[in-house]
Design a protein that fits this description.
Blueprint lengths: L1 E10 L2 E7 L3 E6 L6 H13 L24 E9 L2 E9 L5 E7 L2 E5 L1 H12 L3 H8 E3 H9 L2 H11 L3 H27 L3 H150 L2 H55 L15 H88 L7 H28 L2 H32 L3 H99 L7 E3 L5 E5 L2 E4 L5 H22 L6 E5 L7 H12 L7 E6 L10 E7 L5 E6 L2
Parallel strand pairs: 3-13, 3-14, 8-12, 12-13
Antiparallel strand pairs: 1-2, 1-4, 4-5, 5-6, 6-7, 9-10, 10-11, 14-15
């Protein structure tokens, strides 16, 4: 298998990157975290999917962090294997959905993520773990080969060669065997005797037959009793019909007797009430004349009440007319006084108008002085700036001295130095004089503004006073209007009163006559009320006489009905003793039948329960037979698992016995190549101790130099890769060495690189992943991996 090219899009830190793999020793150089190892990870992901990544359970971390949600993440790998060119593209789309495609010589060989992975595992002949172990070697693995104890070294090598998988299989076989043995032991304890169950079934089936016979006899007995009950029920129905008719007639008779007693009592009450009303009629005849006299006196009083009411109206109107005339006179006097007061306010209006003009003049003067003052303040600020510039120039010239050049014209100062200082000093004094003059003018303006503001405050106070007076004037106008309306209203009412008094001019009343009439009415009032009450009561006499005639007729009819019902009762011929005898006989027979039916239901329930027990025993017997077969089958499986355990142990020991010689053979080959034939034999004994032969004599590995020990470790690691590749029947023409120079000095690194040159016949592509820059001088090709300012990784091919 030889790598041709690799393309990455949004994979890990790479946004867009492509790489053509040359032949020879290829240095993949870059700082830590730049993405060097990501290139090997991308090869594994293209071939085996998410399980080949550093984060197999966090697939969202594979896609570049800055990629948009709708962007795809994909890797395209091209390689040559067994004379065919393979092209694999694996994609992670939206929502992290996977997809993949495999082409062989341009033709599609497999699709879908799962389908492509299975196809490539079969084509390469190994899973991802074996593939990665075959092509990638790391510094920590090389150090572990010699630094660990023989036991740890053996465990590590067996794990790399997948021999530990046999140990896991043996462990699983033993677990299955224990589970089966536990099942047999406990199932055997729970297994019951099938013959005992069959005997119990036969016993219960015999009881079932007896119950069926008893049920048949009981059913026949219930039928016989049922026929007898029917005969009794016919007689019982006849007696019940008689009883119902007898009770019905008896109830009617009682109701009629109750109505008869009620009518007789009603007649007595009405006769008593009629006698009382006849006495009241005699009393009414006695007082009827006095009642009529009351009506005449009442009519005359009503006439006098009407006249009296008008008389009091006339009296009230005369009093009201006097009050209104007095009120009108007073209102007119107050109105005239207000009109005189109103005439005095015209002068106040003129005074307020003059005051407003004065306020406007003061405001204009204040504004004028404020503007003038503002202009002078701005002028002061400008002069201060000029003064500051002048002082800065003078200080600069003094600092430079007479021998320097003028900062303004560039000529040498010389004799002009003193004159220039004097001129600048005079300008400074002029500035200060001007500033003082302006400040004096500003203060004068402030004084004038303050005087004007004081005058303005006085004018405003006077204006407020005049406005209060004018406000009162508006109130006086409203009062005058109110008085005019009130006078008009009162004069209108006065006219109405005079007209009404003219209508009532002739109205007079005799109070003595009126009072005598009222006294008489009070004396006759009680007699009148008694007469009204008696008149209403005696109106009921005809109605009571009619009711008494009707009640007498109803009493006769009820007595006739009672006589007819007595005749019907005799015709029914009801005998209560006979009725009770038939009822008792019916109840006894009914209870006997219910008792027999209860016995039958209980027997049927017992029979159902018995049949369920028989069915349950039959099922249990079948289950026990099946359980016996399961125990027999489990014993067979235990025997087979024991045989499998023995075979796996022998196979494991066979492999282990063969691994050490095989590793020794391949390691010796690589070590001989690395050392130029100086050492041609590396041996790993049964305890996984490492020895190197020097001139035919065996020595432990720690006897040799650090550089030679590194080469021996590398030879052993390559031997492990060779064993895995040969087991898969796959020839790898490339290998990746990841940071194998981590702790080595320059001399030891050079030894390893020289040794790798010797491997070029076997490995056409040797990928050295490292962050050590010095390595590039010893490699044929350089692939530079670096990050930009946004954290995106890039690939750059550098020439030698």
């Amino acid at each position: 298998m030889r790598l041709i090219s690799l393309e990455l899009h949004n994979f890990r830190k790479f946004k867009n990157a492509s790489l053509q793999f040359p032949e020879g020793i290829i240095g993949i150089i870059g700082s830590n975290g730049a993405g060097k190892t990501t290139l090997i990870e991308a090869i594994g992901w293209a071939l085996y999917g998410n399980k080949a990544t550093r984060t197999p359970r966090a697939k969202e971390q594979i896609k570049r962090q800055g990629a948009l949600p709708h962007d795809d993440c994909w890797v395209r790998l091209r390689f040559e294997m067994k004379g065919n060119e393979y092209e694999v593209i694996r994609i992670m789309g939206r929502n992290f959905s996977p997809d993949a495609q495999v082409k062989i010589n341009g033709r599609v060989a497999a699709t879908t993520a799962t389908g492509a992975t299975k196809f490539l595992e079969k084509a390469i002949g190994m899973d991802y773990d074996s593939f990665y172990t075959s092509i990638v070697a790391k510094q920590k693995e090389l150090n572990a080969l010699s630094d660990k104890t023989p036991g740890e070294r053996k465990k590590n090598m067996l794990k790399m060669l997948k021999i530990d998988a046999i140990e896991k299989a043996i462990k699983k076989v033993r677990e299955d065997k224990r589970e089966k043995s536990y099942f047999v032991e406990h199932a055997q304890k729970l297994l019951k005797n099938i013959d005992e169950i069959e005997e119990e079934i036969e016993t219960k089936e015999a009881i079932e037959k007896e119950l069926l016979a008893s049920l048949k006899n009981l059913g026949e007995k219930i039928n016989d009793y049922g026929e007898k009950l029917y005969e009794i029920e016919v007689r019982r129905e006849r007696e019940r019909e008689k009883a119902e008719r007898y009770n019905e007639l008896l109830m009617k008779k009682k109701m009629l007797e109750s109505r008869l007693a009620e009518k007789i009592n009603n007649r007595k009450e009405k006769e008593k009430e009629l006698n009382e009303l006849r006495l009241k009629k005699e009393r009414y005849s006695e007082i009827e004349g006095a009642a009529n006299e009351y009506d005449e006196a009442k009519r005359k009083k009503d006439e006098l009440d009407g006249i009296r009411e008008k008389f009091f109206e006339k009296k009230n109107l005369i009093r009201e007319r006097l009050e209104i005339e007095k009120s009108i006179k007073k209102l007119k006097e107050e109105k005239e006084a207000l009109i005189k007061e109103l005439q005095e306010f015209n002068e106040t209006k003129l005074m307020k108008s003059e005051l407003e003009k004065k306020l406007m003049e003061v405001d204009e003067k204040i504004l004028h002085f404020e503007k003038e003052m503002k202009g002078k303040e701005v002028e002061v600020q400008q002069i201060l700036k000029e003064k500051e510039k002048n002082e800065n120039r003078m200080n600069e010239i003094r600092r430079l001295g007479p021998e320097s050049n003028c900062p303004m014209c560039g000529r040498k100062l010389g004799d002009h130095f003193e004159k220039l200082i004097k001129d600048l000093t005079e300008q400074k004094m002029e500035f200060e004089t001007r500033i003082n003059d302006l400040k004096g003018l500003i203060e004068e303006n402030k004084r004038k503004i303050e005087e004007l503001r004081e005058r303005k405050r006085e004018f405003e106070e006077e204006r407020k006073r005049l406005e209060k007076i004018l406000s009162r004037m508006e109130g006086i106008k409203d009062k005058i209007s109110f008085y005019e309306n009130d006078i008009s209203s009162k004069e209108s009412r006065l006219t109405e009163i005079i007209e009404r008094l003219e209508e009532l001019k002739e109205i007079k009343i005799d109070e003595e006559e009126y009072n005598m009439l009222v006294t008489k009415l009070k004396q006759l009032e009680k007699i009148k009320f008694e007469a009204i009450k008696l008149q209403k009561e005696i109106e009921r006499i005809p109605l009571l006489e009619s009711d008494l005639k009707r009640i007498a007729n109803e009493i006769i009819l009820i007595k006739n009905s009672i006589h007819e019902i007595d005749g019907e009762i005799k015709e029914v011929g009801f005998d209560r003793k006979m009725y009770e005898s038939v009822e008792n006989e019916y109840k006894e027979m009914r209870n006997e039948i219910e008792k027999l039916r209860g016995e039958k239901i209980k027997m049927e329930r017992d029979l159902l329960h018995l049949r369920k027990e028989i069915e349950s025993l039959k099922k249990e017997m079948e289950e026990q037979r099946k359980k016996g077969e399961e125990i027999k089958e489990a014993r067979k499986q235990i025997a087979n698992l024991s045989l499998l355990e023995d075979l796996l142990l022998k196979f494991k020991n066979y492999l282990i016995s063969k691994i050490a010689p095989s590793l020794s053979f391949y390691a010796s080959h690589f070590f001989s190549v690395f050392t130029g034939g100086k050492y041609d034999n590396v041996e790993i004994d049964d305890d996984y101790n490492i020895f190197i032969y020097d001139r035919g004599e065996r020595f432990p590995i720690n006897r040799f130099s650090g550089g030679e020990e590194d080469l021996a470790n590398l030879a052993l690691r390559l031997a492990i890769s060779e064993l895995i590749a040969r087991r898969a029947d796959t020839s790898f023409e490339f290998i990746a060495l990841d940071e194998i120079f981590g702790s080595q000095d320059n001399e030891r690194r050079k030894n390893v690189l020289n040794a790798l040159n010797e491997l070029r016949k076997q490995f056409k592509q040797i990928l050295l992943i490292t962050h050590i820059e010095e390595i590039k001088e010893e490699t044929e090709h350089i692939i530079r991996v670096y990050e930009d300012s946004e954290g995106v990784s890039h690939i750059k091919i550098e020439g030698r």
